[in-house]
Structures are given as structure tokens and as C-alpha cells.
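Let's do one together. I've listed all components of the complex below, 228 residues spread over two lines.
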Amino acid sequence: AQSVAQPEDQVNVAEGNPLTVKCTYSVSGNPYLFWYVQYPNRGLQFLLKYITGDNLVKGSYGFEAEFNKSQTSFHLKKPSALVSDSALYFCAVPTRGGSQGNLIFGKGTKLSVKP
Amino acid sequence: EADIYQTPRYLVIGTGKKITLECSQTMGHDKMYWYQQDPGMELHLIHYSYGVNSTEKGDLSSESTVSRIRTEHFPLTLESARPSHTSQYLCASSEYSVVQPQHFGDGTRLSIL
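Okay, and this is what the predicted structure of the assembly comes out as:
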């Protein structure tokens, strides 16, 4: 069965420092992986996805993610964090089989960026 | 910006009332979804639809019902609201493809007194 795990409930970073939000996956077949962000009182916004090709995927708001097949990871990164990056981040993977195309989300990681 | 709209954004209502949460999208997406999310917590899929006249139950059992009479509209109904229904409800839509992202509305925060 498809699954993702986000091992950290919260990540704290100082403004200007690099940030990493971790995600590991377990899938059958080719891995398709997504990152979403949720700002307070808003819905989720799509950040980036990995389908195939280059292991470094660039997305919105200066975020990127590194796909690592040997470590089954898809960590979200940003070279220099902003206070406005403070939000809830979700990693996701599509289901297979009968409900194909639905997404399985991780439990979310709260990112807090302090000035 | 995603073209998916949810109304109302906030609703406080008494126990026993019938509630309909509205969701509309202008992107022509075939698939639509309803998620339940307690604030700051994980998402739970409660309903989804592959297209007109298609509705399926999600992973989390819910007393709510949905309908899909038009492609763009996917309302969620609670026949008799209870305090346990207090939560945030998020609607989303996507193309029918595993590689296309879902687009989310800003949610309805429901509080049942």
C-alpha cells in the first residue's frame, strides 16, 4: 500500500537559515510525490511534484525538493527561510487501484520561522 | 490562484439543524473531494466523485452525504448536525490523473453548539 511519513511534527528555523521538512515514502511502482502548504485559515496550496526525471524539483515560493530513491525520501528544502514561510506542510502520494488518483497525505509538519 | 470556492467560510449553528456546505469549481475538473480536518491536524478524505452522478465514500466514515448533479458543483449535507461534526471541511478538485495536483478551496469552519 502507498504511504508517506513525516517524522517531525514541528520544525523551528531562524529567518535566513536553510530549512528542511522531511518526508519518506513507501510505494509500489513508480513514485509520484507531492508537497502542499497550508497557511492559517486557508486551504492547501500545491508547491511541487516529482513524477520522473531530475531528482531536484523546483516549485513555488523558492521551495525545492530532493527525491532520493535509495533512502525513499522526498525532503522539502529552501535555502533561506522567511517568516512568511511559517505554515503547515504536507507530503502526499497518489493511491493505486480502485481509488486511483486520490491522495494519501502525511500528518503534516508545522514550520515555524522566527525573526 | 485556484478557482474553487467554498461557502460559507464560517458557520456556527445549533444541534439538529440541516446544513449544506457549498463547493464550486470553474476549472472543469472531473474529480472532486471533501476532506475533514481539525485545525492544524491531518486531513481525512470523507467523500469523492469521479464526475456527474458519481459519489464515493472516503477513508473516514462520515454521517454527511454528497451529490454531484453538475460538474462544477459538489455540495456536502449534514441532515442533523451534532457537536461531533465540529471541524473544518475542505473541498478540492483535480483532473482525472494521478500526476495532476488537487486544487483546494479555503474551507468551511463549522461549529455545532
